[in-house]
Amino acid sequence: MDTRIYIVDDDAVIRKLLKNIINEFNLGEIIGEADNGKDAVRDIKMARPDIVLVDLLLPDIDGISIVSTINEAGLGTSFIMISQVDTSEMIAQAYDSRVEFYIKKPINAREVYSVVNNVKEKRKMKKIIEDIDRAVSGVGALKEYLGGAEKDKASDRDKIRNIFYQLGIAGDTGGSDIVEIILMIRESRELDRLKKYKMYELYEGVSQKYSKRGIADLSARSIEQRVRRTIGKALKNIANLGIEDYESEIFNRYSNTLFDFEEVRNEMNYLQKRTKYNGKVNIKKFIEGIIIEINR
Q1: Cβ neighbours of residue 78 under 8 Å, at least 6 residues apart?
Q2: Does residue 236 carry a pLDDT above 70?
Q3: Are the C-beta atoms of 178 and 227 separated by less than 8 Å?
Q4: Does pTM surpass 0.70?
Q5: Using 50, 70 and 90 to split pLDDT, how confident is the model at 132?
Q6: Does the N-terminal or the C-terminal CB of the chain have fewer CB atoms within 10 Å?
């Protein structure tokens, strides 16, 4: 059975582009579209699509409100947010409302293809787990094997290290600094803490932690440089992976959640000598993305 997809965007050109991509790559069946939030909420409740691609900024009801309203109705719909807005605050708010992925405009066909397939695979795996749950009792171990809900088995530190292994930065000193920054944020149990703090304050906090432990005498500036170098290396590695295998699961998962996808493309073009300018590092987005990943 085809995945049923609904599109919400006030720009008719964007809606047409998304429909063309979905049809060209056979991503699913388009069951409807809307150019405003009010009609979208009504249609989604009636049609119950599997996946909704929704613009963040709409004339009446914004995309995040649509996602929250439908989630409260318990329809089991998966949402992919699409927007020109790429501030860390808005992206964090979108993921907090249980959006699966955030795609930044301008629309890239390959990115839409990868993200929609990723969401479809996640829905498929969730259904398998739910079906087993209904048939078998005591299925906790199988859930863990399938990547299900038992997220608390591994510590945050282990989860972060696993991501770093995939990004090829597990041995970098800046990686240890990033772990400490994330743990500082996690201690408060608030993702909002990243928004409230200036990055320099977080570097200073890590510096003080190291000093108290007698591990190292590093200034906040030195920590910032190490973090930037490590994330820069991760960006280069993910770009190289995208050049070698655009369909790579790791590339599809992290190129948009840990980095600005436009900067990943810039880095890919730079590595292929198509431009003189390489991709830029966004430290806050990277850290925020890691937090979102370990919260999944």
Answers
A1: 50, 51, 52, 100, 119, 122, 123
A2: yes
A3: yes
A4: no
A5: low
A6: N
